[in-house]
Amino acid sequence: MKWAFRGALAVIVMALGVWIWVTLFPGPEQAIRKRLAELAQLGSFAGNEGPAAKAFNSQKLASYFTPDVEISVDVPGVPRQKLSGQDDLLKAAMAVRTYLSNLKVDLVDITVTFGPDKTSAVANLTLKVQVNGEKEFTPQEMKFTLKKVKGEWLIREAETVRTLSQALNKLNELNRLNGKLILFRQEVPA
Amino acid sequence: METMLEAPVQSPSLLRRVVIGRDPKRTMQRVVILVVVCFIIAKFVLLPIQISGPSMLPTYGERGINFVNRLAYLFHEPRRGDVVSIRLAGPSIMFMKRIIGLPGETVAFHEGHVFIDGKLLDEPYVKFPCSWEHEPRTLGPFEYYLVGDNRSMPQEDHTEGKAPRERIVGKVLL
């Protein structure tokens, strides 16, 4: 019993040590995860945010991206949108904060893959957005390409991923381009 | 002759017996085993889910609780008509859809009806009529075509399309 207690204590102390080490000296993956958690926090806002706070938080949010950031949004029912550069992003962030009264952003299921140079990484994740305090949420799969700039991980590219693809096969695409859309000959019973 | 006095054996109270049992050590062992078994089942076998959104109406109502059987496709591949869960970046948030097209097939929508390789698909689970139109899409060797049962929604608001086999997490149990 005494030995079991000592063993359990040793395991707890070791786990605590590992946790302290990881917190104080995070590896690149932990650094990226921490950065994305901060980004989600900055992207969320409540209705009581004043104009100064709106500008400050939008500015801070934009600082998580590289100056030449490319953001591509392709979701069903909305025309494809593209943002280029921090200025575009800042304007969009301010617009969202102005038009919506409340936004809650969560980034879940984050998977990080590093490039061979270890100064670039790709983070695949699911973005969960709740607008104006509604219970319903919109999930969107995303791909972030990050770059290490002066010791900090910044987002270089952000793009939406279509979980369910609508892409046509190559033959259909060719026929479409040639104006020869394949039509149905099957009659539908009334 | 010595007089022996024996203290009466106190049996635990009814409440204690019901809550902790006669042997607390054994009860604790049972609780630990139960927690471990529940954790393993919930993580690797039956994934508990809460349904959100109207795309599977009327088959599955909003806010309903269900389970995803992760072992359903261990011995056979997904079949047409199966309601499955599709992972996004991971299993925390998933889409719940019905398989209508199998690998290699061509799927199309015309006046709200589904056509597989040009033949009309009978869909008794679709209760709300629609007028969806989709030009034919041919699926790859490991691709499935997935769509919700609620076709009364505007087509652009309904997430549907092709997904590779590895995105299918499991079959919805109930």
Question: How does this structure look, described?
Answer:
The complex is a heterodimer of chains A (190) and B (174). By secondary structure, chain A is of the alpha+beta class. Chain A has one domain: Roll (Nuclear Transport Factor 2, Chain: A), CATH 3.10.450. Helices cover 39% and strands 31% of the residues of chain A. Chain A contains five helices and six strands; from the N terminus they run αααββαββββα. A six-stranded mixed beta sheet of chain A has the order 2-1-6-5-4-3, covered by helices on one side. By secondary structure, chain B is an alpha+beta fold. Chain B is built from two helices and eleven strands; from the N terminus they run ααβββββββββββ. Chain B has helices at residues 14-19, 24-45; strands at residues 46-50, 65-69, 83-87, 94-101, 106-110, 113-116, 119-120, 134-138, 143-147, 161-164, 168-172. In chain B, the strands form two sheets. A seven-stranded antiparallel beta sheet of chain B has the order 1-2-11-3-4-9-10. In chain B, 28% of the residues are buried. The mean pLDDT of chain B is 88.
Helix content of chain A: 25-40%
Number of domains as seen in the coordinates of chain A: 1
What is the typical, i.e. mean, pLDDT of chain B? 88
Share of helix of chain B, binned: 10-25%
Tell me the span between the first and last alpha carbons of chain A. 78 Å
Q: What is the CATH architecture descriptor of chain B?
A: Ribbon
Strand content of chain A: 25-35%
**Cα radius of gyration of chain B in angstroms:** 26 Å
Domain count of chain B: the total is: 1
So what's the overall shape of chain A? globular
Briefly note the structural class of the backbone of chain B: alpha+beta
Beta strand % of chain B: 25-35%
The strand order across the widest sheet of chain B is 1-2-11-3-4-9-10
The total count of strands of chain B amounts to: 11
The CATH class designation of chain A is Alpha Beta
Task: Please provide the ordered H/E string of secondary-structure elements of chain A.
Answer: HHHEEHEEEEH
Extract low-pLDDT stretches of chain A: 179-190
What structural category characterises the helix and strand content of chain A? alpha+beta
Q: What is the architecture of chain A at the second tier of CATH?
A: Roll
The overall pLDDT of chain A, averaged over residues, is: 84
- Biggest pleated sheet of chain A: 6 strands, mixed
